[in-house]
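Quick one:
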Amino acid sequence: MRLVKSCVALAIPFCTLAVFSMAAAQAPAVRKPQSQPPPQRRPATLEGRWTASLEAGEAVLHLVLHVSKAEDGSLKATIDSLDQGVYGIEVPL
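Output:
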């Protein structure tokens, strides 16, 4: 139970990092006028598989966050801690 609480506590900053990373990556660039319209961009989404390494003191934990849409359209997520061999920890959103 302690491990699950620790992993859930780690998931919150992980999710925050993913949101901020996506926002920074999608910041609009200054563009020069073009004669043809710009290509269509895919809508931003958190859905997918996100990987990161978390340094906790001398330890480094490799984490994988899985984000998908539930049947009702809400987001759901699980996190895997690869180094600890823990998979499918539900992340409260």
